C-alpha cells in the first residue's frame, strides 16, 4: 500500500504493469470517503484519446520512483469506463471491486 507521504513524491510517476512495462502515468488519487486513505489511482494513458482508468491503490507498490500494479496492461485497459470527475459513486466503486476481483468491497455508507 502506498502511503500519503509517498504520494507526494510521485507526481506524474510512471505506472507499470505486472511485467514492468509502462501503462501510462499517474493521474489522480482518489481517497476513501470513510478513512481518507488513498484508495484508487487513475492512469493516464495514450490509448483511447487519453482515457483515464482506475486501479486500486491497495495492490500498487512503489519501485524506484515508479508505481507497479499486479495487473496486465490489457486488464487495466479493460477496466470499466468511469468518469474521473473527482468522486466515485458507490456503484462505480463496486464495479471496480468486482472487475479487479478484490475481496474487500467498499464499506457500507453511513
Automatic annotation (TrEMBL):
GO cellular component: a single term: plasma membrane light-harvesting complex
Xref: InterPro entries: Bac_photo_RC_H_C, PRC-brl_dom, PRC_barrel-like_sf
PRC-barrel domain boundaries: 6-74
GO process terms (BP): photosynthesis, light reaction
Superkingdom: Bacteria
Name under which the protein is recorded: PRC-barrel domain-containing protein
Organism, scientific name: Ornithinimicrobium cerasi
Amino acid at each position: 500500500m502506498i502511503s500519503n507521504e509517498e504520494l507526494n513524491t510521485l507526481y506524474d510517476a510512471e505506472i507499470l504493469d505486472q511485467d514492468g512495462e509502462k501503462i501510462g502515468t499517474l493521474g489522480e488519487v482518489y481517497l476513501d470517503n470513510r478513512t481518507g486513505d488513498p484508495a484508487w489511482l487513475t492512469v493516464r494513458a495514450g490509448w483511447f484519446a487519453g482515457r483515464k482508468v482506475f486501479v486500486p491503490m491497495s495492490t500498487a507498490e512503489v519501485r524506484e520512483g515508479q508505481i507497479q500494479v499486479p495487473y496486465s496492461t490489457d486488464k487495466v485497459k479493460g477496466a470499466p469506463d468511469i468518469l474521473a470527475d473527482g468522486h466515485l459513486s458507490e456503484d462505480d466503486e463496486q464495479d471496480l471491486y468486482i472487475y479487479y476481483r478484490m475481496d474487500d468491497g467498499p464499506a457500507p455508507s453511513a
